[in-house]
# Entry
Amino acid sequence: MAKFCSKCGTDIAENIKFCPKCGARTNKISLEKNVKDAINATDTGRINPMPNNRQDFGQQPQYNQQAPVQKNNDIVKFVIAGVVLAVLIVFGMYSLVFKDEGNKPVASQAAQSVQQEKNNTESSSVPADTDNKYKEKIAELANQKDQLDVEIGGVAASINSYLNNGHADFRDASADKILNDAKATLDKVEAAQKQLKELKVKSEDQAVKDALLSVYDCEAGRIRGLYKGVLDSRNNGEYSIGFGEGTKAAYKFDDENKKFNDLYKK
# Structure
């Protein structure tokens, strides 16, 4: 059976007492015994080093060693830093967007109050002590509406009479009075319209005001058409266009005037 030098590991014969290479005294432990001991140790579930004579192979005995477990401290620190940074970014954006949020409700309430007051004013809300004044003004404009209706009818009658007397246009000097009367009546209608539009009334009387405005719109259309027809003819144009517009407004006037009278009498 071959054996090895316990000092330098040289393969030597069984009966040699001294190593021919290093001169060390040899022991009688064979390689076969060393292998069997290693196999038996493996079967028991543990790894044992070879006997001391394993130094024969020129290596130091190797024992069961476990490499130290390194914790990924750098990675953990990086993750924590990332989470903190994300939280700071979100918080910063929130603060930027809502930094004035605390003041908004107050400003919003103030703006709403101003708007509500404005709406109340625009909806014709008036103090109680002026109730009779605006109602009196409505009554005055309603009476004026009837007077203007008569004046417009008078201008229309003058135009018909002028044409029936053989005039083909309004270029004759005798048509000056018709033109002046039409212009004066138009000015009165437009002045009454303006007063009515600027009049502030309570909500319960808003419908009456709107109905009266519709009547005045019709009266303005009637007299404006008559004035336009006469003026166009004086300027070498045709009076038919203006008279046609006045006629359309006259048809509408009867319906709007009836609606106002029915509503105003309630």
About this structure: Confidence is low (pLDDT under 50) at residues 42-69, 100-107. The beta strands are 3-4, 11-12. The chain is about 65% helix and 0% strand.
